[in-house]
Amino acid sequence: MTLDVGTARDAHLEGSGEPWTLVFIRELRQPPAVVWAALTDPAELDQWAPFSAARNLAEPGPTTLTMVDGDQKLDLPAVIRVAEPPRVLEYSWGQDLLRWELEPAGDGTRLTLRHTLVEPSDHASVATGWHVCVVVLQHLLDGDPHGVIRGQAAKEYGFDELREEYAKLLVQPS
């Protein structure tokens, strides 16, 4: 199935040196409560996110998020630190910290993801990964599910070209 992932946009970096934070913003057509469910319900996460979740993420406490790339799986410890439905979800993922903020925007939601990466990483690849995931999320929320795109499968959807766009857009602060 063909999926147009669009172009690099609405992202920037915060911080100086390691760790740095990718700030990724999208306008979604659904209200915050609907987006919240997609961010926390394991069945919905499994249709768009780069990981599967061992439990619902709407409750604070430890869990496991499993990275999936084809037949390869990697369990990473996670701790839900903040769960304030339908506004803020914050959790560790391995050593990283993800903070999802949802604000009403007309009939929809302004989604802001702050992904703080502790380990040195390719910020353009991280942004590209979230970009592809959120495109799949929007299709899911629109009732037109595409199916999850994880790991190497993203190469079939223009990952390399999109990554180059983000590399130009995201200049690390000095």
From TrEMBL:
CDD domains attached to this UniProt entry: SRPBCC_CalC_Aha1-like_6
Name by which UniProt lists this protein: SRPBCC family protein
Classification via Pfam families: AHSA1
Family indicated by similarity: Belongs to the AHA1 family.
Domain Activator of Hsp90 ATPase homologue 1/2-like C-terminal: 31-141
InterPro entries in the record: ASHA1/2-like_C, START-like_dom_sf
